[in-house]
Amino acid sequence: MTDTIEQSVGTDRASKRKAEKRERLLAAAKKLFISRGYHETRPQDIAREADVAHGTFYSHFNDKREIFLAFASEAQSDLTEYCQTHIPKIKNFEEYLHYSLTAIQEFAEQNPGLLRSALVDTKVFDPTDSTGKVVRGKFASGFIKVLKIADEKGELHDDVDPELMGYAMMGIIQSSAPQSYRMGKSREEFVSIMTKFLTRAMVKNPKNL
Prior knowledge:
Blueprint: H1 2-35, H2 43-50, H3 54-60, H4 64-86, H5 93-110, H6 114-118, H7 131-152, H8 162-182, H9 187-202
Helix pairs in contact: 1-2, 1-4, 2-3, 4-5, 4-7, 5-9, 7-8, 8-9
């Protein structure tokens, strides 16, 4: 009986240590992907930053792509959680645009470099790497879901394709937000401009234009 208990305690401790090392690796990967970028970060760099042996990296992740997907998935979950807690009850898609854009920009400001790093186009250096495509699909899924609901309610123009526009919204925000800040526009100005643009493009009967 005593041997069984001791074995169980030992197993729990080993599992805890393994989980802690995985979290250290993820924290290190996040730091390096943001500061160096996906292509300039190697598994051995992540292991060194996490203060674990190089081989320990491969006890938790098969390769850099796998830990990047874990990093991007965590970023997406954090963004989704932030938006869910900062978007009030809305009446229509037009309101969703305003509040979601505001929440996304607030999240980006509070987490410098995170979304840019998570949404990097991995095919720039390796045309065969589909990692970026997988990540962008996850980020676009939130927009697509809301667009489909708005489409079912008849709020959108008949020729609006929810899936295509979900990816388009993500791309527009990803490329236009940094440029907006470089132009000296405030978050409020950016949100107002983009809300009006997307509303005109997709909403049948806008309330606030």
